[in-house]
Amino acid sequence: MTNALDELRSDLAAEQEALDAVVANISNDRWQLSTPSPGWTVADQIGHLTFFDRSATIAIVDAPRFQEDLSALIDAASNDSLDDVTLRGYRALTSSDLLEAWREGRRTLQDAALTLSDDVRLPWYGPSMSAKSFLTARLMETWAHGTDVVDALGATRRATDRLRHVAQLGYLTRAWSYRVHGDEAPEGNIRVELLSPSGQLWTWGPEDARERMTGSAEEFCLVVTQRRHVDDTSLQYGDLGRDWLLRAQAFAGGPSTGPLPRSAA
Questions:
Q1: pTM recorded for the entire structure
Q2: Considering Cα of 18, then 43, then 261, then 239, what sign does the dihedral take?
Q3: Closest CA relative to residue 36, chosen from 229, 249, 244
């Protein structure tokens, strides 16, 4: 019987392969197309994933070294922007070398992930994380940055039920989405009911919650990863839900506001 960690390992690899299929055969000039993330090209999106996949591997196999690298990163970012520090080396690579670096980093991370068990906690950029949360975050990052790549290239990428991991993370980070902006979540529960790509109903939250949020799982994931503004979706929600989705942030780091509505862009 497949356990949750095995499923996550498999789904992470599948998500990475799905993005690889989008960029594997694009021309050199298309690697330099601007993406919806300001100042980032397609190559930068892949470089970002490469850097943090490598960091994730180090966090798994050598926690003291990860802490040393984290301290060095903080020191370097005091003089340069974090993007410059993490992307500089990858921006110097050719597109083919970058693609191979990403693939090699993924393979190494996949091998390291095989050593994880449910009781392990891993250091990261903030509080330590359980093994399941750690791999979920890598899958979420791959899918979210992949969305920017797909949008920039005008490509297509089929939504799959791997999005359940992203949707669950989005639901669980409601309180974090407020705290990272210096606020506290208002009182009241929200029942989230989402239609999966395969037509299943995914639910989180108590049935007697104060409000319900319903709609497409893919659209919900786009909002909580700040790839779409809530006004550009067909999600249905109440006042509590809208207040949350306007600041939803399923990823670590400092506060981020996400894109404007397309009508205002």
A1: 0.95
A2: positive
A3: 229
